């Protein structure tokens, strides 16, 4: 954070006022509050200085105030829903992955989480939009991706295979600190691109970053939570959650994460990583194994209440594909 | 001399005057569930706490909807005022707000027809313009946002009125702030009084500063503040689900006037795969349990 004296005070602050604020950080002023600031800056220029500080804070440093009508325009014009490539999952998610949201897929091993991520990534990249894939388990496999790509329906906007795979940037990550620094770099790079510096995106949404995938979040955070220093683990977890949220909101990209499950005394598996992580994703989908390659998914949490029940899909060589519910299946939560 | 004394002894105001000046009727929040749980008056802060998925954000959205919908005489629709929503958790969803607004409009229609009252044509757009969202991604954002509210609120109050400040999850940065340690000692200097904490945003310093600013805002502008707090520490031996652990620092706790506890009703998981029934109690009267059904678009209590 800049020193208060380094902010752009403009010409309307006299040198005495500027000298008063020299050497203070913005945090120091924030923590002390307005009254203390005007006491500390007692003198002819104090009122002017504190008013100017308020203006700078409001226009340069504080988060923007947006009214509902502005948010509506933003939602209609800037926010897209990315199809996952599997129609039953899309229906469950009301169209797909909404940009600006963290969507978490949780479930036992082999319940189809990573495959659903890969299909969503390939579907997005085939339109020419970029995908950042943070890979903890070396799941990402170009042969898999190619097979998923070939099964996608043909369309005039579908890029050739090589161009599609070029749009998926795989970042191997080994711990949560790696993930934090890579995410930060991705956000900075994308901000540069959108500000008109660096390699320019082509027309429309082609070349734009639309999806960040973290597979899996529990592999990153599990180890730090088990350590003796409970608070540090929770803080790292919180940092990752807030950084993902900030990236999703400020760049308007969708974040897709996967998470494991743990057994619960109150019956049934529940998402891993505990209460602090539980509030981070806006949407949570739980995936379950049925016989053979058949899987089903339900919505555990959503910012919009009503959902469409159960999504059935089958794991095939061309990715998760919608299938029918087995006969005689009754839903028992 | 004597007249001075007589002047001194004349009461400044009678108790009746004081009461007339200070007494305020409970604010009709427009969310029956909350109104029946706690009497909400101006300059008070209500803390709504519960685990993830217990309906906290939903309650704030309902309260926002009731504030921003236009006031139509004879109808229980809205107050036509501005509402400010500080979103520390990134959970606010405009689509959900639209659902609630439309649900309230639909619910008011039969009553309007019966009374022969015309609902205005374009209700949603002006209502949305009265809603103000501030998304905060760190404690710095939170403090800076509170600071700028001092300029925003008078403008809104002048326009159409503003009595409601919503704060979604005051514990959002709890763990991040907690590991930040203050610097050992402040450098001596002419402004040592300004740099006491060394400008480090710790759990204590953030909530001391935010608490002071919130208190000033609520007192000066007679605001009602509804704040949620996510229960990040689940306590052991929690048989009835009402047990909770108060982990917030003292400056925050000193602000809280009423505490509402929420939980989702076990077994209300429908084939839709998500709980739609929530229960709430007023911490001061834990024997009275109210139920909130968000399956219906408006909150109902029973």
Automatic annotation (TrEMBL), chain A:
<dbReference type="GO" id="GO:0033063">
    <property type="term" value="C:Rad51B-Rad51C-Rad51D-XRCC2 complex"/>
</dbReference>
<dbReference type="GO" id="GO:0000400">
    <property type="term" value="F:four-way junction DNA binding"/>
</dbReference>
<dbReference type="GO" id="GO:0003697">
    <property type="term" value="F:single-stranded DNA binding"/>
</dbReference>
<protein>
    <recommendedName>
        <fullName>RecA family profile 1 domain-containing protein</fullName>
    </recommendedName>
</protein>
<feature type="domain" description="RecA family profile 1">
    <location>
        <begin position="78"/>
        <end position="261"/>
    </location>
</feature>
<dbReference type="GO" id="GO:0000723">
    <property type="term" value="P:telomere maintenance"/>
</dbReference>
<keyword id="KW-0539">Nucleus</keyword>
<dbReference type="InterPro" id="IPR020588">
    <property type="entry name" value="RecA_ATP-bd"/>
</dbReference>
<dbReference type="GO" id="GO:0005524">
    <property type="term" value="F:ATP binding"/>
</dbReference>
<dbReference type="InterPro" id="IPR013632">
    <property type="entry name" value="Rad51_C"/>
</dbReference>
<dbReference type="GO" id="GO:0042148">
    <property type="term" value="P:DNA strand invasion"/>
</dbReference>
<dbReference type="Pfam" id="PF08423">
    <property type="entry name" value="Rad51"/>
</dbReference>
<dbReference type="GO" id="GO:0000724">
    <property type="term" value="P:double-strand break repair via homologous recombination"/>
</dbReference>
<dbReference type="GO" id="GO:0007131">
    <property type="term" value="P:reciprocal meiotic recombination"/>
</dbReference>
<dbReference type="InterPro" id="IPR051988">
    <property type="entry name" value="HRR_RAD51_Paralog"/>
</dbReference>
<dbReference type="InterPro" id="IPR027417">
    <property type="entry name" value="P-loop_NTPase"/>
</dbReference>
<dbReference type="GO" id="GO:0005657">
    <property type="term" value="C:replication fork"/>
</dbReference>
<dbReference type="GO" id="GO:0005815">
    <property type="term" value="C:microtubule organizing center"/>
</dbReference>
<dbReference type="GO" id="GO:0140664">
    <property type="term" value="F:ATP-dependent DNA damage sensor activity"/>
</dbReference>
Automatic annotation (TrEMBL), chain B:
<dbReference type="GO" id="GO:0005657">
    <property type="term" value="C:replication fork"/>
</dbReference>
<dbReference type="GO" id="GO:0000724">
    <property type="term" value="P:double-strand break repair via homologous recombination"/>
</dbReference>
<dbReference type="InterPro" id="IPR030547">
    <property type="entry name" value="XRCC2"/>
</dbReference>
<protein>
    <submittedName>
        <fullName>Uncharacterized protein</fullName>
    </submittedName>
</protein>
<dbReference type="InterPro" id="IPR027417">
    <property type="entry name" value="P-loop_NTPase"/>
</dbReference>
<dbReference type="GO" id="GO:0033063">
    <property type="term" value="C:Rad51B-Rad51C-Rad51D-XRCC2 complex"/>
</dbReference>
């Amino acid at each position: 954070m800049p020193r208060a004296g380094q902010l752009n005070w403009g010409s309307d602050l006299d040198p005495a006022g500027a000298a008063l604020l020299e050497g203070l950080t913005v945090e120091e002023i924030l923590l002390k509050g307005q009254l203390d600031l005007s006491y500390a800056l007692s003198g002819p220029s104090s009122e002017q200085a504190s008013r100017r500080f308020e203006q700078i804070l409001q226009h340069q440093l504080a988060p923007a105030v947006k009214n509902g009508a502005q948010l509506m325009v933003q939602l209609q014009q800037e926010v897209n829903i990315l199809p996952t490539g599997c129609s039953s999952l899309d229906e469950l998610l009301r169209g797909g992955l909404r940009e600006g949201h963290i969507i978490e897929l949780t479930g036992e091993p082999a319940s189809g989480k990573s495959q659903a991520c890969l299909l969503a990534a390939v579907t997005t990249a085939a339109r020419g939009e970029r995908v950042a894939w943070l890979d903890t388990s070396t799941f990402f496999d170009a042969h898999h991706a190619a097979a998923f790509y070939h099964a996608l329906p043909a369309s005039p906007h579908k890029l050739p295979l090589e161009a599609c795979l070029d749009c998926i940037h795989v970042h191997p990550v080994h711990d949560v600190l790696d993930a934090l620094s890579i995410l930060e770099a991705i956000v900075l790079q994308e901000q540069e691109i959108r500000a008109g510096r660096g390699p320019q995106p082509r027309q429309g949404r082609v070349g734009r970053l639309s999806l960040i995938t973290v597979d899996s979040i529990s592999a990153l955070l599990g180890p730090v939570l088990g350590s003796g220093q409970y608070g540090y683990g929770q803080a790292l977890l919180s940092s990752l959650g807030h950084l993902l949220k900030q990236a999703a909101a400020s760049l308007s990209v969708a974040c897709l994460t996967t998470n494991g499950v743990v057994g619960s005394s109150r019956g049934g598996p529940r998402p891993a990583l505990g209460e602090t992580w539980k509030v981070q994703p806006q949407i949570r989908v739980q995936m379950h194994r049925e016989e053979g390659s058949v899987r089903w998914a339900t919505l555990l949490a959503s910012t919009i209440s009503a959902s469409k029940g159960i999504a059935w899909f089958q794991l095939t060589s061309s990715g998760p594909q919608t299938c029918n519910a087995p006969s005689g299946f009754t839903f028992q939560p | 001399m004597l007249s001075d004394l007589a002047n001194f002894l004349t009461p400044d105001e009678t108790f009746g005057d004081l009461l007339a000046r200070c007494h305020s009727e409970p604010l009709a929040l427009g969310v029956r569930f909350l109104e029946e749980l706690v009497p909400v008056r101006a300059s008070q802060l209500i803390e709504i706490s519960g685990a993830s998925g217990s309906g906290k954000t939903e309650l704030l959205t309902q309260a926002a909807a009731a504030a921003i919908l236009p006031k139509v005489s004879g109808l229980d629709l809205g107050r036509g005022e501005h509402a400010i929503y500080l979103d520390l958790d990134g959970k606010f969803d405009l689509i959900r707000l639209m659902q609630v607004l439309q649900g309230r409009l639909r619910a008011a229609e039969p009553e309007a027809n019966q009374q022969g009252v015309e609902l205005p044509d374009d209700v949603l757009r002006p209502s949305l313009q009265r809603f103000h969202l501030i998304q905060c991604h760190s404690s710095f954002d939170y403090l800076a946002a509170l600071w700028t509210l001092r300029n925003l609120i008078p403008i809104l109050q002048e326009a159409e009125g503003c009595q409601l400040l919503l704060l979604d999850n005051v514990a959002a940065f709890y763990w991040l702030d907690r590991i930040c340690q203050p610097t050992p000692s402040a450098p001596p200097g002419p402004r040592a009084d300004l740099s006491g904490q060394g400008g480090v945003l710790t759990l204590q310093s953030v909530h001391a500063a935010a608490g002071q600013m919130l208190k000033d805002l609520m007192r000066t502008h007679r605001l009602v503040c509804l704040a949620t707090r996510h229960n990040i520490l689940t306590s052991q031996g929690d048989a009835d689900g009402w047990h909770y652990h108060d982990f917030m620092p003292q400056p925050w706790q000193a602000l809280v006037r009423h505490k509402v506890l929420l939980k989702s009703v076990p077994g209300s998981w429908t084939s839709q795969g998500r709980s739609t029934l929530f229960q709430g109690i007023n911490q001061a009267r834990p024997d009275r349990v109210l139920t909130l059904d968000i399956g219906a678009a408006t909150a109902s209590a029973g």
